[in-house]
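Entry:
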Amino acid sequence: MDHDLWDEAFLRKLERLALVSQRRRMGRLSGARRSPKRGSSVEFADYRNYTAGDDLRQLDWNIYARLEKLFVKLFEEEEDLTVHILLDASRSMDWNSLAVARTLEAEGRPELQTGGKFRYARRIAAALGYIALSDLDRVYLATLRGAAWQRLGPLHGRQRAVSLLNYLERLQAEGDTGLNASLKSFAGRMRQPGLLYLISDLLSPDGCLDGIRALQSAGYEVNVIHLLDPAEVNPQLALTGDLTLRDIETGQRLDVSIEPGLVASYEEKFARWRDPIIQFCTRQAIPYLLATTDVPFEDMVLHYMRRRGLLS
């Protein structure tokens, strides 16, 4: 099942991983996870004393024969997890500083209007979705554009991975960004809260924290994957000299000269924008990962996401 987003060998590695959920949820379907709740499933867990009204079929008669006491057998219930993957599909995700640098070198410093982050984001979404489907979880994928969102799912079972991959491969980054509005809309309309991954550069004029807060209030277990191009963190990696920059969503143009004073000002403003997001996630116990596209993708999934507690 080789795809543009990955190959068969990587799929085998993903099958050894699991999504990390702090709050187990009982589902409607038979899943691969064990719930801390006790029920009538396939794996023995413990005993407790018999009380009037218990199901006599769950009595352990072998123990009764030895001890002349009645004990009820307890079993672990299996559960499926509802997993929501929210993918920012706005034009601001369509950015690739490596392509910019090559274009500047080859064509004499044109305006910057290329793309690239979105492929990395789609690969993360595909990896999370495949892991969930391999564990028999129920998966929803929502693409966010402007104040709206579109949903794929529910998907259930490993056989639906092909549908997920094909859908992600066809997606294009387009439109503007309105994360607070789209996240609030999602939180208010979906009725199956569960484990949720937000994959976005968080570059939204209306912000994102109110929307994330609304997701939490609606019962979602939120994880934030903050995806940026390395040049968005440090513009000197790709941009030098006199340039005309064009906002990829609004079309607004700005003439700049990349010199030390401007870079220092950018770094200060970048920190003032990013740090409150990190602090908010820390206060709300939301797992947060700052991911940059210069990190090899397999390292991001197999190492960094595990270190941050998003995968195990």
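The chain has two domains: 8-25+80-307, 33-79.
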